[in-house]
Write a structure and sequence with these properties.
This protein is α+β, with helices and mostly antiparallel strands and 115 residues long. The chain has two domains: 41 residues, Single Sheet (N-terminal domain of TfIIb), CATH 2.20.25; 45 residues.
Length: 115
């Protein structure tokens, strides 16, 4: 399948050829095109769709139970979140990194953390 961004795309406002750029939002790298003349930007539709899915999940609050298992506590991760992570990572390891963000907040890191 051919990617639409492999073709020459002209700016809707001024008619100049748009140049490929990469934008970073909330850890996502979004492919985009930018017009050097007027500054107009166009996001890649696939990247924009994935980013919008992330924003919807981010704005959702999940209430989960903490359970006692052996000598530890366990918290279940909603299937919706795991599916999204699997789509992004393509391969998801069963190990996650768990650490304190502050005194009342834990962070889970799936996959390899980029530095």
């Amino acid at each position: 399948m051919t990617d639409i961004f492999d073709n020459v795309i002209l700016c809707r406002k001024c008619g100049e050829e748009m140049n490929p750029i990469k934008l970073e939002r909330n850890g996502f790298i979004l492919r985009a095109l930018e017009c050097k003349k007027c500054g107009s930007r166009l996001l890649h539709p696939v990247d924009e769709s994935e980013y919008n899915k992330f924003i919807q999940l981010k704005n959702k609050t999940f209430r989960v139970k903490m359970r006692f298992v052996g000598n530890s506590y366990a918290v279940s991760i909603p299937r919706e979140i795991v599916r999204f992570i699997k789509e992004q990572e393509k391969v998801m390891d069963n190990m996650v990194k768990l650490c304190f963000s502050n005194s009342k907040k834990l962070s889970l890191v799936f996959g390899k953390e980029e530095k």
